[in-house]
């Protein structure tokens, strides 16, 4: 049996995307321009509820902009889950503030609202929930805690397009801003890219200014009655976070395919749910009835009775020609966060336990039914089932 290696993730890019990129190249407009503007409008319409959307060159940039716009600054504390990618904490440091890591719920692996409560001090300014794997956090509780303590909420929605909570799409909840990622392995891609979504026009305005060097069109309008095309004013030392039209060209068509991508992901997740149900695995938590899980990831955890350790399991899957991954190595284990804040695994028992047993299985739209059959057969073989 010499089957090809099945990678852990692959983007699905069609001729429509390729032609649109070529169109951008031929047009001569390769940086931010008409395609980015269209992509922002289409994305805002997809999310609905009259949100505004601004395209950026990564979710990391977007989270940085959103936290800056809600006023996070030196010495502030921002509560983030330890069970996430380092972005969620690093953007807090960009602003001179401190990420305060908290543990997750042992079932959902989403930030634990009780742990948020315990972490609040008089320096706490914001919470950044991460909808892990594409499953919504307990947002009613998180928003209630934020209201009670006067905190901002910026959602890290890198996994959650499209995810719903109580029937509402992530991006439309009553939070300050939501940031999506279009990194290569996310549920849709622009190669690199992200989107900041908010209903707050002041926040959007601030993000737009800071996205492009702190150049203000408002200052321009206010002080210059006759506006020559060459004139601009810089009001802040801003950033260079704009999305180029070459990337937006991909996004325009990926967004049109998103519903199909999502249906395919849901089908595959359901098949894993059914065909792995009898094995010594903790399967991913389900969304509330009627709500959508984006299924960016399909994270399983090996139970002790599986009799195989996580690292060995992944090696044996690789030996059988299947790529798996781990989400996440919790932040408290990485030297920068561990050493800066004297963190130890005992402070995050649920995240630590999950990490030690977690394997993310391949789940993406370019996988065929036969590919998934192979993954399931390999798992059964390794677990002796
Ligand atoms: C992928 C990811 C990000 C970063 O997204 P980029 O677009 O690569 O900056 C942030 N948070 C989480 C949870 C992620 O998985």
Structure overview:
The protein has helices at residues 15-27, 34-47, 59-69, 87-94, 113-119, 139-149, 201-211, 217-223, 245-256, 258-275, 310-319, 335-340, 349-357, 369-382, and strands at 52-56, 77-81, 98-102, 124-127, 152-156, 164-165, 168-169, 177-181, 194-198, 215-216, 233-234, 281-282, 298-302, 358-361. The protein has 385 residues and is α/β, with parallel strands linked by helices. It folds into two domains: 15-255, Type I PLP-dependent aspartate aminotransferase-like (Major domain) (Aspartate Aminotransferase, domain 2, 3-Layer(aba) Sandwich); 258-382, Aspartate Aminotransferase, domain 1, CATH 3.90.1150.10. It has a seven-stranded mixed sheet, sandwiched between helices. α2 (34-47) runs parallel beside α9 (245-256), α3 packs across α4 (87-94) and α3 crosses α7. The chain binds pyridoxal-5'-phosphate (PLP). The site of pyridoxal-5'-phosphate (PLP) has 14 residues, from α3 and α4. Pyridoxal-5'-phosphate (PLP) is lined by residues 58-60, 84-85, 87-88, 130, 156, 158-159, 181, 183, 194.
